[in-house]
């Protein structure tokens, strides 16, 4: 089977998942992607850019596998007059969703009440797909349970009666992890000294950096010994807590910043004693 995987945000965990699926699927998987930046614009404009490829260059696949970052209803609508497009089965993969995903209170869309537009794109994507696949049962349940509450916010014709049909076509497929790849670095020497705390998340609000670093500052103030490694991608508008933590915990920091080399990243994982998960 020829599968075209459509990912408008080809970066970070989205990229790793897509490449992993391509490597391990028994089918012929082609990746059709856009750069992993400007995620809001990707949700709006990605459908137009990817649909245009099919109108101009690409042949139709046996199946489309679209991620939640694609406005699937718009994508399919733009191909309505392409011969055979309506017959191609479509699966929507929900890596995450914008309905239950935590938004930063400082985001301009939250302040203006525009944050629900991205959740509504997820809703119409789910409606347009033949099947919906979530990476966990928790993700499936939290999204589908939250949909009726979101739809109640609209003035009329809220379409809440469509939600039960989404449950019927929703499935769970856990993310594959290539953990054996880490074994090659299992002989990484462990240094003597206080325990190493390693934080390896994106430098953004939803990963919970504020309470994490505040807790470390309390421990440092009490004289609790530890060393700190901070990895993960940073962006132009990272939360202010990073600058504060980098200054106040400077004497405990072994490494600060993104590590693009996987070998170095794996070595840090093996050296660390504590890897907290702080996501909201």
Shape summary = globular
Can you count the helices? Answer: 10
Question: Structurally, how many domains make up the residues?
Answer: 2
Q: Characterize the quaternary organization of these chains.
A: single chain
What does this structure look like?
The chain has 280 residues and is α/β, with parallel strands linked by helices. It folds into 2 domains: 2-172, Rossmann fold, CATH 3.40.50; 182-271, Glycogen Phosphorylase B (Rossmann fold). The protein is built from 10 helices and 9 strands. The protein has helices at 12-24, 39-56, 72-78, 108-111, 116-128, 137-151, 163-168, 209-221, 241-248, 262-271, and strands spanning 2-10, 28-35, 63-67, 90-94, 131-134, 170-172, 196-199, 227-230, 253-256. It has a 6-stranded parallel sheet with strand order 2-1-3-4-5-6, with helices on both faces. It has a 3-stranded parallel sheet with strand order 7-8-9, with helices on one face. Strand 7, helix 8 (209-221) and strand 8 (227-230) form a beta-alpha-beta unit. Helix 2 (39-56) runs parallel beside helix 3 (72-78) and helix 8 (209-221) runs parallel beside helix 9 (241-248). The longest helix has 18 residues, at 39-56. 25% of the residues are buried. The model has no long low-confidence stretch (mean pLDDT 93).
């Amino acid at each position: 089977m020829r599968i075209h995987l459509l990912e408008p945000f080809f970066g970070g965990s989205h990229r790793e998942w897509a490449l992993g699926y391509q490597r391990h699927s028994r089918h012929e998987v082609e990746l059709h992607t856009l750069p992993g930046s400007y995620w809001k614009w990707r949700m709006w404009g990605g459908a137009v850019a990817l649909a245009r490829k099919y109108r101009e260059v690409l042949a139709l696949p046996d199946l489309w596998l679209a991620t939640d970052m694609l406005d699937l209803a718009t994508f399919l609508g733009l191909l309505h007059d392409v011969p055979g497009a309506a017959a191609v089965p479509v699966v929507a993969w929900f890596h995450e969703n914008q309905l239950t995903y935590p938004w930063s209170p400082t985001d301009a869309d939250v302040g203006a009440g525009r944050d629900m537009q991205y959740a509504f794109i997820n809703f119409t994507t789910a409606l347009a797909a033949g099947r919906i696949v979530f990476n966990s049962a928790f993700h499936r349940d939290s999204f589908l349970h939250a949909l009726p509450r979101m739809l109640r916010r609209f003035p009329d014709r809220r379409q809440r009666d469509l939600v039960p049909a989404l449950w019927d076509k929703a499935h769970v497929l856990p993310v594959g992890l290539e953990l054996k790849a880490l074994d090659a670095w299992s002989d990484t020497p462990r240094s003597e000294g206080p325990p190493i705390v390693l934080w390896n998340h994106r430098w953004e609000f939803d990963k919970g950096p504020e309470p994490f670093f505040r807790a470390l500052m309390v421990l440092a103030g009490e004289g609790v010994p530890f060393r700190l490694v901070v990895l993960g991608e940073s962006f132009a508008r990272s939360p202010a807590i990073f600058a504060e933590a980098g200054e106040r915990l400077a004497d405990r920091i072994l490494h600060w910043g993104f590590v693009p080399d996987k070998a170095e990243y794996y070595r840090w994982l093996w050296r660390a004693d504590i890897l907290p998960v702080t996501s909201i």
